[in-house]
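Record now logged underneath.
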Amino acid sequence: MTTRKPFRRLAALAAALAMAASGAAALATADDPSPGLTAYYDQHVTWTGCRQGSDDETGADLDRAGARCAKVTVPLDYTRPAGRTIEIAVSRLPAADPSRRIGVLVLNQGGPAEPTLSMPLQTREYMDGTAARYDLVGVDPRFVGRSEPIDCGWPTGIWIRSAGTDRAGFDRQVAFQKDLAERCSRRHGDVLPYATTRNTARDMDVVRAVLGERRISYLGYSYGAYLGAVYTQMFPGRTDRVVLDSAGDPSRYSPRLYQGGEPALEQALDAWASWAAARHRDYGLGATRNAVLATVQRIVKAAAKRPLRVGSYELDEHVVPYLISGGVGSDRTEARAAFSETVKVLDRAARRITVAPPAQLEGRLRFILDGASSQYGSPAAAIICGDVAAPHDPEVYWRDIQHNRDRHPLFGPIADNISPCAFWPEPPRESPTTIANDAEALIVSATGDTATTYRGSRALHRSMTGSRLLTLDETIAHGVYGEYGDACVDGKVNAYLESGRLPNGNPTCRK
């Protein structure tokens, strides 16, 4: 799901392997673990300091805050619990007010595949006094962060790209995405089938038991909201207070997640263009909305003719549209100002003027284009490709691109582009989870979310009949609670986490 960071924004369903799927369902819904899993649920772990080495700033920050860390052992394959095992990294920041302790709040940053071990440190700031009543628990999902990470050795940070303007560009993308999949298969083919959301949910339930809790509370953003919904489906009755922020439509979760999000992106681009036009003296991008949009079109066309040179980076027709899609995802003043600076730099590069990227843009380009970020993109792709099958025939993608190009010329070729999942070495071993339950949850969404659209959050609300939908109206944001800075939203979420009572009806907050 496209990223609050790049991965929070990421279609055929795979046929399940019948024996594995039925066995997994039995494990997931039983009141007690199956005999083969009892040892995992009953294990005792050793809580230690979190710092691992002198350069481990994350661990040092956790230690200073009073957190403790542990490794929890889980089976690689839940249908073969006596087989190979892996370890899941967990952090726990104890409740500061233990006499009024509510329980544990398990956290997930999203992605998929964003490390979450340090998330208790940020979350306690959002929760104000409510944080003192919870043990805040960060869990790095399997194959992420400190949980036996996989890294496919990609030459790039992430795989999301535009298909470009013509068939030659698309063919380059086919070769590029195929190479990424083959690198993963060579390095990690033995574990890729087990990098799935359903297995991550199973790991969470083992963590719950190890923590000694009958039920957990949960806060997840973007993909983390999807993971939370899957957990409520697989493990009914094991959640207390659940907050699902910036959630997508679970029935549309697939390697082609961007499909359907083009209108929200276009509306956000228009809104930013109006903002930038009102500040033409600052950025020089155009004095009217249409003039700013024309500047963007000129940049895209220039990149299609010849890659833009920005410092040491070359930005081609596949990267520039993705930069734009990520840049319009927030209407906060600082985000719009940063994106306007980015477009200003791209405009100069399009006119073949030597230009260096400002610090924020350089960080983003490094993440997208530097192989050092492969450790983040690799597990994200593994999870999405392991969850839901993608069409294998490149012609399916090309037909969709051509069909959509007239309606959505800038964002359609991103939404319909091919991905590594088209070449993944093995189809998913289980069917995706169908979300249909009455679990209580507070779903939080902004109406202008460009990554997991508001329509998607409404769909999740309908699938979870015990939920309430908290809307931040007329706002472009992905990641709302605590991250956007809206006092109304933060107050309502904290009130729910404090009292356990969902709001009456579906409340709306307005800026």
User: Anything to note?
Assistant: Residues 1-30 have pLDDT under 50 and may be disordered. Residues 167-188 form the longest helix (22 residues). Residues 262-320+327-367 form one domain. The radius of gyration is 22 Å.
